[in-house]
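Before a colleague's protein record goes any further, I have to sign it off. Alongside the sequence sits a line of tokens, each denoting a local backbone shape. I want your independent view on whether this chain really folds as the tokens say. Where you disagree with what is written, explain briefly why. This is what I was given:
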Amino acid sequence: MKLSALAGAVSAAALLAAAPAAFADHHGGGHGQAAHSQQTIVQAAVASPSHTTLVAAVQAAGLVETLSGPGPFTVFAPTNDAFAALPAGTVETLVQPANKATLTKILTYHVVAGRVAAADVIALIQAGGGSAAITTVSGDTLTASLRGGSVILTDENGGVATVIAADLMQSNGVIHVTDAVSLPN
């Protein structure tokens, strides 16, 4: 069953904490908001002071044009704090030209083809008996589940990211803000 084909049966507003102020200010909130912005995913991230590290990484990986394209894309967007929680020097190393392939794989691990709303993810989790495998653009898998009313993404290494703001609808997709960077194998 494809994520984009699922009907949204559950209220996204019931699952998440309030959106970070930056996205709330620029995008009308994220707490289950379904209003569409005229901005692309990249423009929205550039406008968010909480996502400067993500923007720098997207630029270093050469993904600006792709993520500015028609999509649609779903992006699980780690905050600056999420990148800062990585081991010291990780981000600085990844954005070096010699590590472009690794950086691209990590960033595309946060992207799903199609516009996948929070309710779609929740419906998939429920249909899967409590968890759902999500194939990312990198070809790897994130496992979505619910914990305390929040969507949790478990990466292939057992790392956990919580979606802290959902359904930030953009002209070419949707952004769900996460509190951790997910890492593929």
